[in-house]
Amino acid sequence: MHKPKLKVLTIDGGGIRGILPCAILAELERRLGKPVAETFDLIAGTSTGGIIACGLNVPHPTTAGKPKFSAAQLGELYEKNGADIFKKRGGIFSGVTKLFGKSFAHDGLETLLRDYFGDAQLNQTFTELLVTSYDIEHRKPFYFLSRLAKQNPQAENFPLLDIARSTSAAPTYFEPNALPWVNGDKLTLVDGGVFANNPSMLAYAEATEMLRAKPSAVAAATTLPEQNNVVDDLDLEAFVPTVSTGASDIFMLSLGTGRVVRPYRYESAKSWGMAQWIRPIIDILMQGVSESVDYQMNYVLPPHADGTKHYVRINPVIPEECSEMSDVSEKNIQGLQAVARQAVEENEALIEEVCRVLA
To answer: Which of 222, 275, 322 is nearest to 19 (CA)?
Structure first.
């Protein structure tokens, strides 16, 4: 079996549906007998996936060199604290706020992140870390990168709790997160899902840069800019591995938060105005982006000549009644747990193959 040099984990956005990737990761930890942070070289996440990516990298307060949380414990963050994350705004105008403003107060989420993440910093992570966000004032993506945090801590290092809060600031759900930046400037950040709900292609670019920095890396690997800005005119062909050998130095496990099959019927949508389109278009854009990146990654990381997979995507179909990202009712939590158990069972062979690559 071909053994890749770099092992990458990516996790999509999806709110409370973060229960699903946590369950897959918990199964990997059970089979491998070690934490996710000791298994992968790079973890990338968007929104709820960014929270999980950060959580997997929080240092243990008393055991040096070990992560504080297992994947199962992060799953409990959602299962037991969902109501704190998605805390309804109160008051007599709460119904109006739901339609015309942000739907949830952010203080519950911030308190939870502070309790879980403490003072952990980006430049202290076990794995390399990439978390997405979007700056609505500078009008460009902002990438939280542990690689850059180590190189330029003054401008690129942030507390993990601020990173998690920023990447999950979904428009119409939470208000943007304002962070002080260099030279008196500030970042006004919203959910990275607005442009990269599935961060796999970004993770591939970062992994390529990590390989380039290693002495054994292929000299032709493409370099990412050292400053945190938009990668304009990204040449995807530069990242495609050599087809003649089928070899790749990268293995990637991409975890979704569930593929929704809920249709939006023509008879209803044809008469929608702006207000009616707000939530459906977010759902459509996030799922569309995730699936288009999955399509690209199947070509960018094809199987090795011996059949070893270099890209594995697990993203189970979820029923319509479990599709709402902010539904923290006991019934929905139990429904998502059931979907997660089924996903583990149905992907038994695939999970075992992933374990063989990671071992």
So the answer is: 322
d(CA 264, CA 287): 13
Burial class (CB in 10 A: 0-12, 13-18, 19+), 336: buried
Maximum Cα interatomic distance, the chain, rounded to a whole number of Å: 65
pLDDT by residue (tens digit) across 296-325?
Answer: 999 999 998 888 899 999 999 999 899 888
Give CA angle at 154 (174, 113), nearest 5°.
Answer: 30
Run of H or E residues at 252: strand 250-255
Ranges of H-type helices in 168-300:
193-196, 200-213, 266-269, 274-300
CA 181 vs. chain centroid, Å, equals 23
Beta bridge partner(s), residue 141: 134
Find out whether 221 and 75 touch, Cβ atoms under 8 Å: no
Asked if 118 and 55 touch (Cβ cutoff 8 Å), the reply is no
**CA 323 distance to own-chain centroid:** 18
Question: How many residues belong to the chain?
Answer: 359
Question: What torsion, rounded to 10 degrees, do the Cα atoms 226, 229, 235, 239 define?
Answer: 50
What is residue 145's predicted lDDT score, i.e. its pLDDT?
98
Q: What is the pLDDT of residues 5-20, one digit of tens each?
A: 999 999 999 999 999 9
Token readout for 205 is 């670019």
Signed CA dihedral, 150, 133, 110, 64: sign only: negative
Let me know if 245 is exposed, middle or buried by CB neighbors in 10 A (0-12, 13-18, 19+).
exposed
Q: How many CA within 13 A on the CB side of residue 204?
A: 28
